[in-house]
Amino acid sequence: MKRPREEEGEGEEKMEIVWQTPANPPQKQDYIFRNGRRHVRPYYFEFISHVKNRWVGKTIVDLFAEEFKGRPYDYYVNAVKCGRIQVDGEMVPVSYIVKSSQKISHFLHRHEPPVMDLGVSVLQEEDDVVTVFKPPTVPVHPCGQYRKNTVVGILQAEHDLAPLFPVHRLDRLVSGLLILARNASKADLFRQQIEAGVLQKQYVAKVIGIFPEDEQVVDVNINYNAREGRSTTEVSDSDANSSVKGKPSCTKFTRIRTNGTHSIVLCKPITGRTHQIRAHLQYSGHPIANDNLYLSEHVQNRSTNGRTADRAAFNSSNSPPSGNNSCKPEENCEEDFSFDPMCTNCPNLAPKGYDELEEGLWLHCVQYSGPGWVYKCPYPNWATIS
Fold first, then answer.
1. Distance (Å, rounded) from C-alpha 339 to C-alpha 15?
2. 154: burial class by Cβ within 10 Å (0-12, 13-18, 19+)?
3. Which pTM value belongs to this model?
4. Which of 130, 133, 129 minimizes the C-alpha distance to 377?
5. Which of 30, 171, 310, 355 is catalytic?
6. Which of 3, 164, 227, 254 could be joined to 266 by an S-S link, Cβ 3.0–4.6 Å?
7. 171 belongs to the catalytic site
């Protein structure tokens, strides 16, 4: 939708901005490919939030400055003055006091994090189901900072496949088989089968060390810590008074091959907990070989090289910037999209603080099966070791 033209400064020309909403579908021209990464051409977007109890009584500027520290105070002052921050669809003065249940809109020049440019391959297309080879680092659906750089967004832009209903989830860094229903009734049928526990899942992982030859069953509780973005294993003991916070979890592992340094392991999760395979492999003493989050017992600093792993999917685009993500002079980023003088990410293509060098996890979904059906995905290149 179009908003009125904005004053960007005395003596400067007014900008006519087209704000995007979820009703604006991703298009092929929205993507920029550079150095093995798929970028999204920055665009204007309306972020909506509703006033929380702790916000009531604060000025609109102080609210943003305290709650969203990723931008300087002066930015929020200017954003309110020019209407990029509105309350209930109306412009307000910088001294405006927010009230309970009000809707606050923040119109932003949105920069999405890049993902690996490996493409989303359609494996099988049926009347009511589509299966695809999901590449690593690409989230399944819009979340956090991602909207167009998602499997659903790319399929809509490049394959004209919409609407789509993901049947199951794969973590952003995980690759492999993804099943998407093409209508709500088919999605509901899959949901019923998942809830009934009749689906079987198979993954492959590349782990450290020589994994045991016999089948290994890890049956220990999983406790997910959302703040750390990490799961831990918990083993109950005979003490009846001891409390176990984690949820019952079970995974079966079978070694496929080993070269003495690494092993390729077939993973069959019986339950479906967050990071279950990753945590259970760590518990077995054979963590995924490139899984920095689970290679040690303790949480490492995940922001050493910027916003890595699942942080970008979790955080909003109001996250504080860190690091330096400036374009190299020869890249001429500003020529690929319209520069916004109020944007705190311009002239960079990716949002500040994001690690553009992240790679996928050596964990890959190869098969899902249920009553009368089975879908498969080819093995990744890293699954071949000698």
1. 11
2. buried
3. 0.82
4. 133
5. 171
6. 254
7. yes
